[in-house]
Amino acid sequence: MGDSNKGDTLRLPNGDALTGDEVKSPFLIGVAGGTASGKSTVCKKIMEQLGQAEMDHTQRQVVAISQDSFYRELTAAEKAKAQKGLFNFDHPDAFNEELMYDTLQDILKGHKVKIPGYDYRTNSLDFENMLVIYPADVVLFEGILVFYFPKIRDLFHMKLFVDTDSDTRLARRVPRDINERGRDLDAVLTQYMTFVKPAFEEFCSPTKKFADVIIPRGADNTVAIDLIVQHIRDFLNNRSRPGSTGNMALYMNLDLNASGIMGPDHFGNGTYNAIRRFSTLCKELNMQGNFFFDTNKNLPHH
Ligand SMILES: Nc1ncnc2c1ncn2[C@@H]1O[C@H](COP(=O)(O)OP(=O)(O)O)[C@@H](O)[C@H]1O
Ligand SMILES: O=c1ccn([C@@H]2O[C@H](COP(=O)(O)O)[C@@H](O)[C@H]2O)c(=O)[nH]1
């Protein structure tokens, strides 16, 4: 970061100030999309290409977290309904919004956090298998409704929406739920028609408009994934540069269309060039239909 930023208050995307030891705040990327659109697969590919997947958890620079760890605990009556496929896991009320928000805030402050796994066979949080999320440079947070809650949406430095058509998603969900989530065909189809499809249309699909980047065809879109990976690489390199404050938010929350307001003096030349490269690539890919890029109008906090 150039000298021009010395003395600036470092801020989380929602405007909260960061001070002292807390400045090693990660760059937080939200990854939304319908069920079985390929959100986890996209995150996995990003991690693999960055050489993070095979790395020890404590050493990773990039980590991925699922929104499923923030389903709220069900009452006995709700659990009984869930076992019969009669509970709506696709409604925003199924999630613990406050816990999700507080945990993401902790992550943004550079704290180590522990979150439960999720057991789809019992429809419950798995406190026996707690996941320890060590402070990282980049955190991917994926889930069907990660852009639904405004307070949470505002925490992301970058928002991706994995846009896979609904036939493909259903065709992938059926075998996945049968083979990996302990369901039978009837239950999967009934849940899909009763809850999943209507909730996607009402709550998930409308959040696509908040995305900075829309990835058509999910993990098949290798061009888009390569671009995102390159973008993250640039930021990781920038962060490790001598003189960098290590604050990703200052680096990322930019309206690229308004690049006239910044020049090589505003950030270091490396940063500036990376942003220009990203902007140019996005425009090209947009034209090729590999990628839809929108500037982040919600996050003007530099
Ligand atoms: N591009 C793809 N081609 C074939 N199968 C895929 C592809 N992307 C995902 N899948 C499969 O579809 C299912 C759902 O993918 P997943 O990444 O778990 O979606 P989500 O996280 O959005 O629910 C998984 O079984 C996964 O292996
Ligand atoms: O106990 C549960 C909890 C969730 N679901 C379904 O999971 C998907 C969200 O996960 P994806 O990996 O994004 O598909 C959601 O559509 C819920 O319906 C479930 O079936 N049971």
Automatic annotation (TrEMBL):
<comment type="similarity">
    <text>Belongs to the uridine kinase family.</text>
</comment>
<keyword id="KW-0418">Kinase</keyword>
<keyword id="KW-0547">Nucleotide-binding</keyword>
<keyword id="KW-0808">Transferase</keyword>
<dbReference type="InterPro" id="IPR027417">
    <property type="entry name" value="P-loop_NTPase"/>
</dbReference>
<comment type="pathway">
    <text>Pyrimidine metabolism; UMP biosynthesis via salvage pathway; UMP from uridine: step 1/1.</text>
</comment>
<dbReference type="Pfam" id="PF00485">
    <property type="entry name" value="PRK"/>
</dbReference>
<dbReference type="GO" id="GO:0044211">
    <property type="term" value="P:CTP salvage"/>
</dbReference>
<keyword id="KW-0067">ATP-binding</keyword>
<dbReference type="InterPro" id="IPR006083">
    <property type="entry name" value="PRK/URK"/>
</dbReference>
<protein>
    <recommendedName>
        <fullName>uridine/cytidine kinase</fullName>
        <ecNumber>2.7.1.48</ecNumber>
    </recommendedName>
</protein>
<dbReference type="GO" id="GO:0005524">
    <property type="term" value="F:ATP binding"/>
</dbReference>
<dbReference type="GO" id="GO:0004849">
    <property type="term" value="F:uridine kinase activity"/>
</dbReference>
<comment type="pathway">
    <text>Pyrimidine metabolism; CTP biosynthesis via salvage pathway; CTP from cytidine: step 1/3.</text>
</comment>
<dbReference type="InterPro" id="IPR000764">
    <property type="entry name" value="Uridine_kinase-like"/>
</dbReference>
<feature type="domain" description="Phosphoribulokinase/uridine kinase">
    <location>
        <begin position="28"/>
        <end position="223"/>
    </location>
</feature>
<dbReference type="GO" id="GO:0044206">
    <property type="term" value="P:UMP salvage"/>
</dbReference>
